[in-house]
Amino acid sequence: MNRIAIYPGSFDPPTRGHEDLIRRALGMFDQLIVAVAINPNKEPLFSVDERLAMLRTAFDGNPRIEFASFSGLLADFARARQSTIVLRGLRAVSDFEYEFQMAMMNRRLHGELETVFLVPAVDLTYLSSSLIREAARFGANVDGLVHPAVADALRRKFPQ
Ligand code: ADP
Q1: Residue 148 lies in a domain
Q2: Is the CB of 35 under 6 A from ligand 1?
């Protein structure tokens, strides 16, 4: 059985937390589709293409990972890709309510869709893309919290 999981998210930008989750998921699933969600309600820092390029650089050539983008409902994307597994991360209790709502709504929209939650390494639990964006905007050094290619891209966005 070929288990294909979809890991949807904004990845604006990808962090070491996202990378940690992807590595853990590769131990559980045969194929992973890392899917950048195009959200019309969000004004992203990085374009979809920039986010996909950063993700590809971090996982250079791993044949078990595919990078894609999607707009509209995750349930429809999952159906189109013949996947019934959604991967999401839980960092803290504060993530739970939103993630729980999403999982329930997705199941309502696609009865076979299961959401699997993974927790990252403990030293990555506080990391979020928004924290990285804010820190980088004001010139903080984010090396070690993101892939070097992401750190370079942030320096280009926010020249000090
Ligand atoms: P979204 O806008 O869909 O929440 P994100 O890119 O912020 O997109 O997050 C995508 C998924 O990755 C979410 O399930 C989030 O909880 C998880 N995630 C983000 N950062 C981390 C981290 N440091 N550790 C574990 N999971 C994380």
Answers
A1: no
A2: no
